[in-house]
Amino acid sequence: MSRFLLLGVGLIWAQEPIYQLSGMVLSATTGEPIPFVSVRVGRTRRGTVANAEGFYSLPVVRGDTLYFSALGYKRGRFILNEYLTAYQGDTSTGYLYAVHYLVEDTIELPTVRISAIRTPEELKTALLNVPLETQTQVARDNVSPEILAYFLQNLPADPQERLKVAEQRYRDLYYNRTLRPVYPILDPIAAYRLVRYLTEKAQIKREKIYDYWTDD
Predict the structure, then answer these.
(1) What distance in Å separates the CA atoms of residue 191 and residue 24, rounded to the nearest whole number?
(2) What is the model's pTM?
(3) Burial of 50 (0-12, 13-18, 19+ CB in 10 A)
(4) Which of 52, 134, 135, 142 could form a disulfide with 35 if both were Cys (CB 3.0 to 4.6 A apart)?
(5) CA torsion sign, 158 to 160 to 162 to 168?
């Protein structure tokens, strides 16, 4: 039953018409073409890049959503289903045409302070007094406990690293299981107690022998 269901879905997808969509990407403010706009089909790997005149062309199917992005402009979206519903032209030819407008995006740059320097000596002194981070300082900052803790909590674990840790853990477990047991004679405390016991035993034995000959 599942095979027939998958086959039916494949046939329905195969019957979906493919359109060749061609269009222009213009600025909503000036109406001028925007060059080299990135055109991407959502949830797929399909896409293209507009040319220097803002023209693009790529195959699409019903249900696709196109995303337009360019430096200095807000990202635009084009839903093909809505476009086909409102399209007044003939779609039986398989060719569609559209014009897209992108809104300019304001980019805020950091504030730059400009101060007057009277002499070249003052310029040289100012340049020499600019605080610069050395490579040692940068390396020290990169391995600070705060940064390492942040990476540990936010970065996903590396699969290869986790595999190596698991392999090392099982390797250590197997190695420890195959080790021979530790004999008490190798323990310094146990060896001291053994020597002390043998010494006391020998001393008692000598005292008994001395008492035996003394009694006679």
Answers:
(1) 91
(2) 0.47
(3) buried
(4) 52
(5) negative
Q: Is there a contact between 50 and 36 (Cβ–Cβ < 8 Å)?
A: yes
Tokens 């000959």, located at residue: 213
Residue among 48, 85, 86, 81 nearest 65 (CA) = 81
Q: Which residue has the tokens 């992108």?
A: 102
Give per-residue pLDDT as tens, 175-215.
666 655 555 555 667 777 778 888 888 877 776 655 555 55
Q: What phi, psi does 33 have (nearest 5°)?
A: -65, 145
CA 157 vs CA 69, 118, 143: distances in Å: 32, 56, 18
Please name the residue that has the structure tokens 């610069």.
Answer: 132
CB 48 within 8 A of CB 65: no
Q: Write b or e for each residue in 112-150: b if 16 or more Cβ atoms lie within 10 A of its Cβ, otherwise e.
A: eeeeeeeeeeeeeeeeeeeeeeeeeeeeeeeeeeeeeee
What is the helix (H) or strand (E) element at residue 75, kind and residue range? Answer: none
In angstroms, how far is CA 212 from the centroid of its own chain?
88
Say which amino acid occupies 158. Answer: D
